[in-house]
Design a protein that fits this description.
With 369 residues, this protein is α/β, with parallel strands linked by helices. It is built from ten helices and twelve strands. The protein folds into two domains: 316 residues, Peptidase S8/S53 domain (Rossmann fold); 36 residues. It is globular, with a radius of gyration of 21 Å. 56% of the residues are buried.
Length: 369
């Protein structure tokens, strides 16, 4: 989707525009609305919701505000804050949306109706960080993050990207230290040459996009900082005034992953934020080269596996960020086989070797790299 020019010369330090649709969203016809819900089947949300719906989890949506009157969002939007004036004092509760972008992201997280929210029973705390409702600055996003931390949210979703900034970095560090899982859009190729901030900060889930086939989206940037991928292309969602719109970009990926995090936090409330991220990366469907890569990160989120697989909790020695974790996703295929298939086959072979060695009196083990 097109995005407007971020700012005039007086806003040189402004963040990049909200990722995905912002200035002009494409209205969704009945067919567009239906087709744009393809991510629901892709993620097997019906099966996931039998395990968790995100009940009890609050997600801070740092965006352009949310139109809380939309029929698909009623009951899912709490009072938030509005830092769009550029100061440190909130001028509202975030429940209005001049651009429509935040309302679209909210639908992907808590939508209930024509739009299928990933975590429909969770609650959105809308924080308007959009300077003049067009683009956020590093300072307004940072203020939004700090406000979210102070009000006890468990997840923060940020569908914007920009340059490194000390205030933004400090706010992210405070959020992570408060056991909050932070997701941010990696960026879109039309506007971003590399993974932007806050997505590029250690500990943040940098979200990239995939298309309907689960392949890398042409709109999504790549980079070593990428952590997880989710659907991003041709996604329909809620829009102010009771309307619906289509959008494409890592904004959509970010909101969808935020919903997945809410599902996991509701299912496993005892897990730390780092362990929640570990569960998502360990169960992601590996794509591209085996293991983590710059295109897919750890892979495409597998919501059902994240909620049902037996995943050991992340060891404290693994470090404070997911970016230092080298755990291969449990859903990775090796020669068309799941890792446990390979392990079982290896065990059987070892037993045969032991039996043969028992007869010959010799057992030679070689270490294969």
């Amino acid at each position: 989707m097109r995005r407007s020019s971020l700012c005039r010369s007086s806003c040189a330090t402004a963040m990049a525009l909200l990722l995905g649709v912002l200035l002009q969203a494409a209205p969704a016809s009945a067919d567009d609305l239906k087709n744009g819900q393809w991510y629901a089947n892709f993620l097997r949300l019906a099966a996931a919701h039998k395990v968790s719906t995100g009940l009890g989890v609050t997600v801070a949506l740092i965006d352009s505000g949310v139109d809380s009157t939309h029929p698909d969002l009623k009951g899912g939007i709490l009072a938030g804050a509005d830092f769009s004036a550029g100061g440190q004092v909130s001028i509202g509760d975030g429940r209005t949306d001049a651009s429509g972008h935040g309302t679209q992201m909210a639908g992907l997280i808590v939508g209930s109706g024509k739009v299928a929210g990933v975590a429909p029973a969770s609650k959105i705390v809308p924080i308007n960080s959009s300077f003049t409702s067009i683009g956020g600055t590093s300072s307004t996003v940072a203020e939004g993050i700090r406000w979210a931390v102070e009000h006890g949210v468990q997840v923060i979703s940020i569908s914007s990207a920009g340059p490194d900034d000390p205030l933004l970095r400090q706010a992210i560090e405070v959020a992570l230290a408060s056991d909050i899982v932070v997701i941010a859009g990696a960026g879109n190729v039309a506007q971003d040459a590399a993974v932007g901030y806050p997505a590029a900060y250690p500990g943040v889930i940098a979200a990239c996009g995939v298309d309907r086939l689960g392949k890398h989206s042409s709109v999504s940037v790549t980079g070593a900082e990428v952590v997880l991928c989710a659907p991003s292309d041709g996604i329909s969602s809620t829009f102010p005034g009771g309307k619906y719109a289509l959008g494409s970009g890592t904004s959509e990926s970010t909101a969808i992953i935020a919903g997945a995090v809410a599902l996991v936090r509701a299912k496993f409330p005892e897990l730390s934020g780092q362990e929640v991220v570990h569960r998502l990366t360990a169960t992601a469907d590996d794509k591209g080269v085996i293991g983590r890569d710059e295109v897919y990160g750890f892979g495409v989120i597998n919501v059902v596996d994240a909620l049902t697989e037996n995943i050991p909790t992340n060891s404290p020695s693994a470090g404070p960020t997911v970016k230092a974790t080298a755990t291969a996703p449990s859903g990775a295929l090796i020669g068309g086989l799941k890792p446990w298939h390979v392990a079982l086959g290896g065990l059987l072979c070892l037993l045969v070797l032991v039996a043969v060695a028992g007869t010959a009196g010799v057992l030679v083990l070689r270490r294969r790299r």
